[in-house]
Design goal:
13 strands, alpha/beta, 2 domains, 403 residues, globular
């Protein structure tokens, strides 16, 4: 039996219909006169279950949209299924969404290995695969996967930013890289190589882990023993929190850089021991809800108002809620631009036609743009440092490569 996540999330269609919607072709999947079906996979259980909150926010967001009248004369039927962060399960759930539920498109499917399992299938079927909740660089490969679009800055770009900072701060340093042994982690390896070039082999020692591993303690013991004075951790929240605790336990004091996907104060830094992570550096593109800088920011106030009304009790220190909100604001712009024509062809056309879209939770100056040859909607980041209570931005916003 397929596992689904709660009555309110599995199908949030509000039972109120609009009569006389735009005329529909008989072969418009997922679209009727009264609704549009959108599909999603998220890890509500398994090793990446921390990220399940994204799917929950998205369901709440579309519930709000329906409450306000829907879009293009239709209510949104959002179907989000648990894939346990297991690629074979993701494939099974994606097939169900496309072939049984007949969704119009997939949105914000989470994870690099999981999306890797379905990207070819969805592109062969010409099903829009939009604004993925993963920063793998390959989601920008519009030639190979024209129906797939990422959203956040790519992991490879992020690693390039870290490499430049390392070369500036520790030009003769020895770098230890711990990364997940899949396309997610390997993007960080490639980004460091991009910048370090011939210096990479001399400067960097590496260790990998599998997403299903229980701990990364042995890897960190080995990396410390290498004599490294710089540590880059490209890991999911569970392993990143473990890394912070273990580095503290080892009394190791490297220049510590950690992947953005694990920079949540609520999901990683505080559970790891807020004091243990002092000095850890990451890169960011969002406003941090725990930073007093944004206490009266209109964009963050909009997000807080949504959270207070539609997700009461949720941990607003968890920045996974902010990125999910950004995904939703982006797809709503696509749906509005579609002007009632929710055919897959037109949805894809409008997803490729976003120009300097302002999203409330993005750092000042950052905007969302796409084109048929630009499937990396957000390309810039800014470094930040954990001070024991919050992330503190420093330096300039750094634009990523155009590749």
């Amino acid at each position: 039996m397929h596992r689904t996540i709660g009555r309110g999330i599995r199908n949030i269609l509000i039972a109120a219909a609009f009569a006389g919607g735009p005329a529909l072709a008989a072969d418009t999947p997922g679209v009727t006169a009264t609704e549009i079906k959108i599909g999603n996979t998220s890890p509500y259980s398994g090793p990446a279950s921390t990220y399940g909150v994204l799917g929950k926010l998205e369901a709440a967001f579309f519930g709000m949209v329906n409450e306000q009248g829907g879009v293009g004369g239709r209510k949104i039927n959002y179907i989000t299924l648990d894939d346990t962060y297991s690629p074979p399960k993701t494939m099974e759930q994606a097939r169900r969404l496309v072939e049984e539920d007949q969704v119009a498109f997939l949105f914000a499917t989470l994870g690099t290995p999981t999306n890797s399992a379905i990207v070819r299938y969805l592109n062969q079927k010409k099903v829009p695969h939009l604004f993925l909740a993963t920063g793998a660089d390959k989601w920008g490969d519009y030639k190979t996967s024209p129906f797939t679009i990422g959203w956040q800055p790519s992991y490879r770009t992020e690693a390039q930013i870290y490499a430049k900072y390392i070369l500036k701060e520790k030009p003769d340093g020895k770098v230890a890289l711990l990364y997940q042994n899949d396309d997610f982690g390997k993007d960080y390896l490639l980004g460091l190589k991009d910048v370090m070039g011939d210096k990479f082999d001399k400067m960097v020692v590496t260790a990998t882990y599998e997403a299903t591993d229980a701990t990364v303690d042995s890897q960190l013991n080995s990396l410390k023993a290498s004599g490294a004075n710089v540590l880059v951790v490209a890991a999911l929240p569970k392993m990143s929190a473990q890394s912070i605790r273990k580095v503290h336990e080892l009394d190791w004091h490297p220049l510590f850089l950690m992947s953005n996907v694990s920079s949540s104060a609520g999901a990683v830094m505080i559970p790891a021991g807020a004091e243990n992570g002092i000095g850890v550096i990451s890169a960011e593109f969002r406003k941090d809800a725990t930073d007093p800088t944004w206490a009266n920011d209109p964009g963050m106030n909009e997000w807080r108002a949504f959270m207070n009304k539609y997700m009461p009790g949720a941990d607003q220190a968890d920045n996974n809620y902010t990125i999910a909100y950004a995904f939703c604001k982006t797809i709503m712009q696509v749906l509005k631009q579609a002007n009632g024509d929710f055919s897959r062809e037109n949805i894809m056309k409008e997803a490729n036609n976003l120009h300097d879209l302002e999203i409330p939770i993005l750092l000042p100056g950052l905007k969302v743009s796409t084109s048929p040859t630009n499937h990396h909607p957000v390309r810039a980041m800014q470094l930040e440092k954990w001070d024991g209570k919050k992330w503190v931005l420093f330096g300039d916003v750094i634009q990523g490569d155009e590749g």
